[in-house]
Structures are given as structure tokens and as C-alpha cells.
């Protein structure tokens, strides 16, 4: 009976570090995967196609509106006229914003979207360029949407260059 009331023998053994090491490795693997997925997808360099000379950019206009969370969204609309012999079915607009000292304060490269009249009235719809291409001899208004523009921007029209063009001919 005395053995029932005696304290059990304490085993003295080393700490098991395996779960700790496995946890650290798993966290590092997740961080590496997230970093790899959120990096730019190879479009970091804007490729200027010689066909861009046949696409004339005109009538740039900026407007602003408040979004649902109280922030300001800036829209830049411009007309693209295709004077070439191929249809523009995709591409990006590289915009360079400057301050009053003519220094670059922001550079953005955004996909092109065409403004299309809404069949039910009201505001125009934004349509992907692949669904509404700019054919030879056509002119269409495109819109770029910016969530943030530097406060140092001089409010002049940004320098605009068509890059990463996708053509169908």
C-alpha cells in the first residue's frame, strides 16, 4: 500500500526541440511562398512596342471621386486613336507624374480599359480592351484608375506612354 501514496519518479530527460524546429521551418516556408507570390509578375519592365507610334494619345483629363471608405480615387481618361493596320487588344499605360520643379514624384503602369456607353443610361462602363479592342482607324476613350497620387503632383497631365501592347492583325 505504501507504493500508492508515494510520488512518482521524475524522469530527467532533455527537451524535445523537434516540434519547435518544425514550426519555425513551416513559418519560414509560408513567408517565402507569400513573398514569391506577391512579387511583380514579370511586368515590372515596361516594353515599348514600335507600333505605339501609330497609337496617338490625346485629350487627357483627370477627375476625382470619393470611394466607399472616404478616400479619393483619381481617374485619368485619354483618347487613343489607332492610325495603324492592327487592332489594339491589350496593353498598359505608363504615366509619369511630376512636381512643380519638374521632378518625378510618381510613376504608375496600369492596364488599359475602354469606356463604353452604358446601354441602360447613366455612367459609362469600363470594359477590358480585349473585349472592346481599338481597331485600325478607330478612336476610343480609355480610363486608368489610381487609388493614390503623390501630394507633390503639379496637377498637370502626366507623361503617358503605351507599353506592353497586345496586337491582333
Figure out the total of helices.
Answer: 1
Distance between the termini: 97 Å
Strand order of the largest sheet: 1-2-7-5-6
Return the structural class. Answer: mainly beta
CATH classification class: Mainly Beta
The CATH architecture category equals Sandwich
Largest sheet: 5 strands, antiparallel
The beta-strand count equals: 8
Radius of gyration: 28 Å
Q: Determine the mean pLDDT.
A: 85
Task: Tell me the series of helices and strands, N- to C-terminal.
Answer: HEEEEEEEE
Low-confidence stretches: none
* Estimated helix fraction: 10-25%
**CATH topology name:** Immunoglobulin-like
The rough form would be described as elongated
Strand content: 35-45%
- The total tally of domains equals 1
What do you see in this structure?
- The chain is mainly β and 169 residues long.
- The protein has one domain: Immunoglobulin-like (Sandwich).
- The chain is built from one helix and eight strands, in the order H-E-E-E-E-E-E-E-E.
- The chain has one helix spanning 18-38; strands at 55-66, 72-82, 87-98, 104-111, 113-116, 125-128, 139-146, 159-168.
- It has a five-stranded antiparallel sheet, with no helix packed on it.
- A hairpin with a 5-residue loop joins strand 1 (55-66) and strand 2.
- The radius of gyration is 28 Å and the shape is elongated.
Amino acid at each position: 500500500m505504501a507504493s500508492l501514496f508515494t510520488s512518482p519518479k521524475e524522469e530527467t530527460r532533455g527537451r524535445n526541440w523537434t516540434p519547435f524546429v518544425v514550426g519555425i521551418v513551416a513559418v519560414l516556408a509560408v513567408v517565402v511562398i507569400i513573398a514569391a507570390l506577391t512579387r511583380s509578375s514579370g511586368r515590372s519592365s515596361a516594353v515599348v512596342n514600335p507600333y505605339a507610334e501609330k497609337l496617338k494619345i490625346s485629350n487627357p483629363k483627370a477627375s476625382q471621386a470619393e470611394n466607399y471608405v472616404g478616400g479619393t480615387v483619381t481617374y485619368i481618361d485619354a483618347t487613343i486613336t489607332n492610325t495603324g493596320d492592327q487592332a489594339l487588344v491589350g496593353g498598359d499605360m505608363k504615366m509619369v507624374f511630376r512636381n512643380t520643379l519638374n521632378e518625378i514624384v510618381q510613376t504608375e503602369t496600369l492596364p488599359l480599359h475602354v469606356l463604353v456607353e452604358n446601354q441602360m443610361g447613366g455612367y459609362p462602363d469600363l470594359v477590358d480592351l480585349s473585349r472592346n479592342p481599338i481597331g485600325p482607324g478607330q478612336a476610343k476613350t480609355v480610363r486608368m484608375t489610381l487609388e493614390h497620387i503623390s501630394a507633390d503632383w503639379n496637377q498637370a497631365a502626366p507623361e503617358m506612354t503605351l507599353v506592353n501592347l497586345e496586337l491582333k492583325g
